[in-house]
Design goal:
This protein has helices spanning 12-16, 21-29, 49-67, 77-91, 106-117, 132-140, 157-169, 193-206, 229-232, 261-272, 280-291, 294-320, 348-356, and strands at residues 34-36, 100-103, 123-128, 144-151, 154-155, 174-179, 209-213, 238-243, 255-258, 362-365, 379-381, 388-389. By secondary structure, the protein is of the alpha/beta class. It folds into two domains: 7-47 and 296-389, no CATH class; 49-294, Type I PLP-dependent aspartate aminotransferase-like (Major domain) (Aspartate Aminotransferase, domain 2). The strands form two sheets. Strands 2-9-8-7-6-3-4-5 form an eight-stranded mixed beta sheet, with helices on both faces. A hairpin with a 2-residue loop joins β4 (144-151) and β5. The chain starts with 11 loop residues before the first helix and ends with a strand.
Length: 391
């Protein structure tokens, strides 16, 4: 029990941190009969459970002494070597194992990046709206957030340049930029090639670090992949974070960060005092999954699966939310997006319509405007009340 009058003992970091909205989603997602459209939860139907069980049994029966032991903080060298190959082949990122740190989820990569870069009151530019996990990590480091508009081509770098110039004239400076370049959460937009190049130019001009968070880049249903921002950078200013949560299994918590060796080394030292090393068994499972060619197949399977789900929900939106004719309501659905996230396909009047119609299921939505604030709450629609209730 916390005694009264003890708040003065808390660290500044503890006071700066805000509760994660993910916690509130989790409370509702597990409710009986709930159909959640609130978070980027992978569909368990595509988890490669049988392969994971088989690989786990093989590893435990043949190499238990290795897979149950502590690992190096940097991550398994064999896994990092495979990630070097994947990074070059799939993302155009030329690197070595010294550029890679295996983390317990990409969220840890973001946390460690903030630990080594962000000082209290440092200004970090973020998209409006953007993923609250990223902004939460910055706030936990006591950084200050400054928003930049997101449009159909991602973060508006022209507006960013204007804000950076204004900061400079006022005698202040920013420390960095947090950006989700591919299928941004929650808007689903992708940063154009021109803006990626502009972002790197701005980072060089204003002496910034770019936190490139790319957990969704592999889930491209159509079209071509754009170059990773780190692949365009020649000044060592980009920390690039990737995840297997959307392509493999989120519960195993295996991800990796790519960056300049000096920054990676600083992150390794920080991680040593956080959790020593990422789960060894999980790393060996992923390593075998990659070596067997299963990860590449799994990504293709996931893309086919999520494309079907995307097409289905867009069809339902068109069917059940026809364009309104009332002059005080905006037009209907924008063209389909190539992403897990469809918030840009929704219009404000649709949310109002949900509260006006009886629902046959309990559903959980996460309005895009909730990504504009530091603490967000889900909107829960109950088929019994027919009205939104914050819970």
């Amino acid at each position: 029990m916390v005694k009264p009058g003890m708040d003065h003992l808390y660290s500044k970091s503890a006071c700066c941190a805000v509760p994660s909205a993910i916690r509130e989603i989790n409370k509702l997602v597990d409710s009986p009969g709930m159909k959640s459209l609130a978070g980027g939860w992978p569909d368990p139907a595509v988890f490669p459970a049988k392969d994971i069980v088989r690989i786990t049994n093989e590893q435990l029966s043949k190499h238990a002494d290795q897979v149950l032991q502590y690992g190096t903080t940097e991550g398994l060298i064999e896994l990092r070597q495979e990630l070097v190959r994947i990074s070059a082949d799939n993302y155009g990122i030329e690197c070595s194992p010294d550029h890679i740190l295996v983390t317990a989820g990409s969220a840890q990569g973001m946390d460690l990046a903030c630990r080594i870069i962000v000082n209290p009151d440092d200004i970090m530019f973020v998209g409006l709206p953007t993923y609250f996990g990223g902004t939460g990590a910055i706030m936990a480091a006591c950084g200050k957030l400054q928003g930049v508009e997101i449009d159909d081509d991602g973060m508006n770098t022209r507006h960013l340049a204007t804000q950076l110039q204004a900061l400079k004239k006022s005698g202040k400076r920013a420390k960095g930029i947090y950006v989700i370049p591919n299928f941004q959460n929650p808007t689903g937009t992708t940063l154009s090639l021109q803006r990626r190049q502009h972002l790197v130019e701005l980072a060089e001009r204003y002496d910034l670090v770019i936190f490139e968070d790319d957990p969704y880049g592999d889930l491209r249903f159509e079209g071509r992949h754009l170059p990773a921002i780190i692949s365009l950078d020649t000044g060592g200013r980009v920390i690039h974070m990737r995840s297997t949560s959307k392509t493999f299994a989120p519960g195993l918590r295996v991800a990796w960060t790519i960056g300049p060796p000096d920054m990676i080394r600083k992150m390794v030292v920080a991680k040593q005092f956080v959790d020593v090393a990422t789960n060894t068994l999980a790393q060996y499972i992923l390593l075998e999954f990659i070596r067997s060619g299963l990860l590449e197949k799994q990504i293709k399977l996931n893309n086919q699966h999520y494309k079907r789900k995307r097409d289905f929900i867009l069809e339902q939106l068109e069917s059940h939310f026809p364009e309104p004719t009332s002059p005080n309501r905006c037009s209907g659905i924008i063209p389909p997006v190539d992403s897990l996230f469809l918030s840009n396909c929704l219009k404000p009047w649709m949310l109002q319509s949900c509260s006006e119609k009886p629902l046959s299921i309990r559903s959980l939505l996460w309005p895009v405007n909730r990504f504009l604030s530091t603490i967000a709450e889900p909107i829960h629609f109950d088929c019994l009340t027919r009205s939104p209730a914050n819970r």
